[in-house]
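ARCHIVE CARD
CATEGORY: sequence design from structure
SOURCE FIELD: tokenized fold
FIELD CONTENT:
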């Protein structure tokens, strides 16, 4: 893209004097030129001692077992049931008992298993409910059935929580993280696995810090990935491997930098975060093929051993080869066994034994495997490759060629993509150069700071005018269109408020999150409802957007108010957004009862019609108990 067109697009995004994307006026129903907004009560709680807004985030913790909750029994560590919550309630850093006591914290939760973190610097209260599995497992005992169980529990409670934390043993945590990353399709919320090397009950341990870090990230940041958090670092789940059995720094992500680090502050590398780029709703694929295996080459491995391994009922193999994907090219009988297995329908992935690096055909000993029909695994870990095979082979509706293509595709960021030609950097843009020259800035760090400061505002301003060309210019320069302005509003918030359906579709196709909340606690869906953008509401719901519990709880009062005023459009918008039309208001009356009492027969008929045409993706009721309770 030429500098001139880029500069024109970006300048145009800022040229409208009355379109400030950071202006909170969209919340004001009296703004000239806007429709009357739905009276929408914010889902915020205010502390008596603090006039500023505090947003409550809700996190579900699935305690599957692992060292973090173990105790010594006859000189060995074993899981102990029903002990973790009691311990956490004694730790002020992990439970603010005073806040829990003076608020309505337990209106929706089992008080015995629900805790709340102290107030964060971001003015967040993270409320977390712990569901303990029965029995608790050492991760060495984990199976694919347990992975499916975790996935189903996340899917069941997906709309009730802002994020999920899975407590897990460290030995097979990398396998579970990889498997869940493929099983969770169209994920839009954080799922973070963590655990510890030392039980949380010990005086000196890593469990408290790991749990706290995982909770803070899951409750405050919309990172739509299955991640693993350990020792102050957040990793992509399908990129990690356990490298140390005797250190707090137990995991490594050799071929991908951490998504986030938590030191003095939490620093998120948003350029690394894998965005879903979809308008499909979240689902979990629990079907996994167990007929897969790992075959590691070593000098002197016999052809008979390879033949025996491949002649079983195995359908997928991860071959751990030497270096950059090499195997002996002077062993034709061994290569012949691999070709024979591939010809019979077995999919074989070629992954390197090295901790870091990628598979290539740079050497003839590597090309011989490519020619034999093995699929290059790039820089995937063996754990990720095996999990991916299990996930793909379970798709019985696909042909063998379609499955091979999926194995070659980068599905969840499990391998490094070929970036091809270098993309235009924002610092290369004449637009940014003019600003930098005006401010007498020429060093790389200061130029980057300008880019970081301007990008959210430019993107929001372009969205306010519906200028997809300007948004595309920003994206092509490597900028993230999901970042928020200082008010916490993302471009998707703006597009939903304005009713720009084509812009909403564009943003969703480039990773925008329907779960992002601004500093008022509002999502793009609540913005679309407030300004009655019917088609936008439909699209957001299709993508998986939903009301929070507080919004659903307040829906009865809002619906009754709309019914009393005869507002049919407002009732339909709330219905499309997933509200329960039979939800009673504060006085116990439903919208239909209010309309009937006021003699508004048209409203009663309209409500009945809406209820008859209830959308399939209706409200998911909260289940207070799950597996093991």
């Amino acid at each position: 893209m030429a500098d001139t067109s880029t500069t024109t697009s970006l300048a145009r995004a800022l040229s409208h004097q009355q379109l400030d994307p950071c202006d909170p006026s969209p919340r004001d129903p009296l703004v000239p030129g806007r429709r009357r907004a739905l009276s929408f009560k914010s889902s915020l709680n205010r502390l008596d001692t603090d006039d500023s807004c505090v947003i409550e985030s809700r996190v579900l913790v699935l305690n599957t077992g692992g060292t973090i909750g173990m105790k010594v029994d006859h000189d060995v560590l074993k899981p102990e049931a029903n002990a973790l919550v009691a311990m956490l309630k004694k730790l002020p850093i992990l439970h603010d008992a005073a806040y829990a006591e003076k608020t309505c914290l337990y209106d929706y939760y089992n008080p015995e298993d629900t805790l709340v973190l102290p107030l964060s610097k971001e003015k967040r209260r993270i409320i977390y409910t712990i569901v303990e599995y029965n029995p608790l497992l050492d991760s060495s005992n984990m199976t694919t059935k347990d992975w499916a169980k975790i996935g189903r529990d996340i899917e069941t409670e997906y709309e009730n929580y802002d994020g999920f934390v899975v407590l897990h043993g460290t030995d097979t945590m990398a396998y579970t993280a990889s498997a869940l990353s493929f099983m969770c399709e169209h994920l839009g919320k954080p799922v973070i696995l963590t655990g510890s090397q030392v039980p949380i009950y010990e005086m000196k341990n890593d469990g408290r810090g790991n749990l706290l870090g995982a909770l803070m990230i899951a409750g405050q940041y919309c990172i739509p990935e299955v991640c693993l958090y350990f020792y102050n670092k957040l990793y992509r789940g399908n990129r990690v491997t356990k490298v140390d059995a005797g250190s707090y720094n137990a995991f490594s992500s050799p071929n991908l930098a951490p998504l986030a680090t938590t030191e003095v502050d939490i620093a998120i590398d948003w350029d690394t975060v894998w965005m879903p780029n979809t308008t499909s709703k979240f689902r979990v694929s629990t079907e996994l093929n167990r007929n897969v295996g790992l075959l590691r080459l070593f000098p002197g491995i016999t052809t008979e051993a390879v033949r025996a391994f491949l002649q079983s009922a195995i359908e997928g193999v991860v071959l751990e080869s030497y270096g950059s994907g090499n195997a002996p090219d002077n062993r034709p009988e061994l290569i012949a066994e691999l070709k024979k297995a591939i010809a019979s329908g077995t999919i074989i992935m070629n992954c390197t034994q090295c901790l870091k690096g990628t598979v290539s055909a740079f050497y003839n000993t590597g090309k011989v495997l490519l020619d034999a029909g093995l699929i290059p695994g790039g820089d995937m870990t063996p754990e990720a490759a095996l999990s991916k095979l299990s996930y793909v082979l379970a798709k019985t509706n696909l042909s063998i060629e379609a499955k091979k293509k999926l194995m070659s595709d980068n599905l969840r960021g499990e391998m490094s993509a070929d970036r091809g030609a270098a993309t235009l950097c924002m610092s290369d843009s004449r637009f940014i150069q003019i600003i930098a020259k005006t401010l007498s800035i020429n060093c790389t760090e200061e130029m980057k700071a300008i880019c970081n400061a301007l990008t959210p505002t430019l993107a929001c301003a372009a969205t306010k005018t519906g200028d997809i060309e300007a948004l595309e210019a920003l994206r092509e320069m490597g900028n993230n269109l999901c970042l928020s302005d200082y008010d916490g509003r993302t471009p998707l918030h703006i597009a939903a408020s304005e009713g720009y359906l084509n812009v909403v579709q564009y943003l969703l196709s480039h990773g925008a999150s329907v779960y992002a909340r601004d500093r008022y606690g509002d999502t793009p869906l609540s913005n679309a409802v407030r300004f009655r953008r019917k088609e936008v509401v439909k699209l957001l719901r299709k993508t998986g957007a939903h009301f929070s519990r507080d919004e659903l709880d307040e829906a009865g009062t809002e619906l009754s108010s709309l019914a009393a005023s005869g507002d049919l459009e407002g009732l339909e918008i709330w219905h499309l957004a997933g509200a329960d039309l039979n939800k009673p208001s504060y006085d116990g009356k439903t919208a239909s009862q209010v309309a009937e009492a006021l003699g508004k027969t048209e409203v009663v008929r309209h409500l009945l019609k809406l209820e008859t045409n209830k959308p399939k993706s209706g409200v998911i009721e909260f289940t207070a108990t799950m597996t093991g309770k």
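CARD ANNOTATION: The longest helix spans residues 444-464. The chain is about 35% helix and 15% strand.
SHELF: design records, drawer C
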